[in-house]
Design a protein that fits this description.
This protein is of the alpha+beta class and about 500 residues long. Helix content is about 40%, strand content about 15%. The strands form three sheets. A six-stranded antiparallel β-sheet has the order 3-2-1-8-9-10. α8 packs antiparallel against α12 and α8 (about 255-280) crosses α14 (about 465-505).
Length: about 500
């Protein structure tokens, strides 16, 4: 007959033997997590990209955008049109539906071939002025370039700079642009930070199901071990009375005693971090949306590459310059069938220019009525509620530079809508850009709480605390690390004893 004593014995055994395998990765995860608080995985932030670009001069720029569209075999499939500077030349960058990128010289209207070595070096030197550049070859994927956002640019061309940061640049083989920079200090810290935390030594490419299931398996094992250990710790602690030794814990040996105590104090934190790490992998698609996603084509209500623009590029740049706006990049966009130009300066600030207005004016944001009308096309359901947010909420908030979400635009104010679909989808629209900056249905919101909140403590009021939040997380990490390290010592002893016993048998 199965008794509670048998159940407890099973829990003891589960904790004992799963911890042998789980304590090492749990120790590494906690330690590397502290590093990740301060040093993020290499990425090129939008502001870094814009800051490195020169001003778009109206004196030398530019041919109308229609001259660039002529080089697309299927203009109706052009999803994005951007005027930028590549290797010192004003250029139109076209992105097709399939992700293919094309570059057209904005001053001559000539299609630009894939970059040669000279173009790559010019691009690198423009990004880091005054530094020498040395080609390091090409890579499809390496330890710093697993992001799927880099896929249209592969293979990537590596260039080592001799600046003070010893920056390693990655150049797109499609366009010749710098698409990522990795300074030396970031690379070195990431060996014991994100690269270690995400077990990237076992990852092969931006999509690797073997790596995904390895992380899921290790996280599940760690969660099971921590939960079982918590039960064991509670059962062995004398909440009333004491053991013969006069202590609340039965363990007298140093490692065992402190493993018990740190487990009781920091066990809940360890469980929440390891479990939320498991949830970050979206096991079995738990947080994948079930209903229809917002239809961005319907939201734009236009065929991007086939739309005509009454406002020429030169006119737009002249109007922006007259307003004192230091334009670094321009995008051609559509909202509810209305074309407009979105300009960026070096700090990431934006301005909007209607493309078909009789007397176009530079605006800071799109009209509220235009956003609300376009939003009705996003989903085939009624809009349940609409609200303008001037402060961040539990789903829409800004993360620090070290976060993997630091490159995501999170400006205020923002228009929040909730649809009356089965998933009660939340959509956030930026009046400054017209973009759908975030959409979450019920399952995705559950993932936000089970991963982001438990793992990062990222409620807006927590993030506003700055260093006090970081200090609390560091202290808790030290306690969790002590728990994992003492468990590692005990696991080593148990394993050594088991092996010795097996040899004798």
């Amino acid at each position: 007959m199965w008794t509670s004593a048998h159940a407890k014995r099973l829990v003891f055994l589960v904790h004992r033997w799963t911890a042998v395998a789980a304590c090492v990765p749990m120790s590494l995860w906690v330690f590397s997590g502290v590093v990740m608080l301060f040093v993020g995985y290499p990425k090129l932030l939008p502001t870094e990209h814009l800051r490195a670009l020169p001003s778009l001069s109206t004196g030398q720029c530019c041919l109308p955008v229609e001259a660039a569209l002529k080089h697309s075999p299927t203009p109706e499939e052009v999803q994005q049109i951007t005027l930028t500077t590549i290797a010192g030349r004003p250029s139109y960058r076209l992105r097709q539906t399939d992700g293919t990128l094309r570059v057209v010289d904005a001053t001559t209207g000539v299609a630009v071939p894939p970059p040669d070595d000279a173009t790559v070096l010019r691009s690198a030197r423009a990004f880091v002025p005054g530094a020498n550049a040395v080609l390091q070859g090409r890579t499809r994927d390496d330890r710093w370039t697993h992001s799927a956002q880099l896929n249209p640019h592969r293979p990537l061309i590596k260039v080592q700079m001799d600046d003070s940061a010893s920056s390693l640049l990655y150049i797109s083989s499609s366009t010749g642009e710098v698409v990522m920079d990795a300074p030396r200090h970031q690379r070195y810290w990431n060996y014991v930070g994100a690269w270690l935390h995400w077990v990237y030594m076992f990852r092969d490419g931006s999509r690797d199901p073997v790596w995904s299931w390895l992380v899921i398996g290790l996280s599940a094992l760690g969660t099971l071990s921590a939960i079982a250990g918590t039960f064991v710790g509670l059962w062995r602690w004398r909440f009333t009375g004491r053991y013969k030794s006069g202590s609340k814990t039965p363990y007298r040996e140093f490692q065992m005693r402190w493993h018990h105590i740190t487990g009781l104090v920091f066990g809940a934190v360890m469980i929440s971090w390891i479990f939320s790490g498991l949830m970050s992998m979206n096991p079995l698609g738990l947080f994948s949306p079930q209903g229809p996603l917002p239809d961005l084509r319907a939201y734009q209500h236009a065929v991007p590459g086939a739309t005509s623009f009454g406002l020429s590029t030169h006119q737009a740049l002249t109007l922006l310059d007259a307003q004192g706006f230091d334009t670094r990049e321009v995008e051609w966009k559509w909202l509810n069938g209305q074309p407009y130009l979105l300009a960026f300066d070096g700090a990431g600030d934006t301005r909007v220019l209607p493309a078909n207005a009789v007397a176009p004016q530079v605006e800071r944001a799109l009209e509220q009525s235009l956003l609300e009308q376009a939003a009705q096309r996003l989903l085939p359901f009624a809009i349940r509620s609409t609200a303008w947010l001037n402060e961040y909420d539990a789903y829409y908030y800004r993360r620090g530079e070290a976060s993997m979400y630091s490159g995501t635009a999170r400006d205020l104010p923002v228009l929040r809508l909730q649809f009356d679909d089965p998933g009660r989808t939340l959509v956030y629209l930026s009046p400054g850009t017209g973009d759908v900056v975030l959409s979450l249905e019920r399952r995705q919101r559950a993932g936000r709480w089970l991963f982001n909140f438990l793992h990062s403590w990222d409620l807006p009021w927590m993030l506003r605390q700055g260093w006090p939040r970081d200090a609390v997380l560091v202290v808790l990490s030290i306690g969790a690390l002590a728990l994992a390290l003492t468990g590692m010592v005990l696991g080593y002893r148990r394993l050594k004893l088991f092996i010795t016993h097996q040899r004798r048998v």
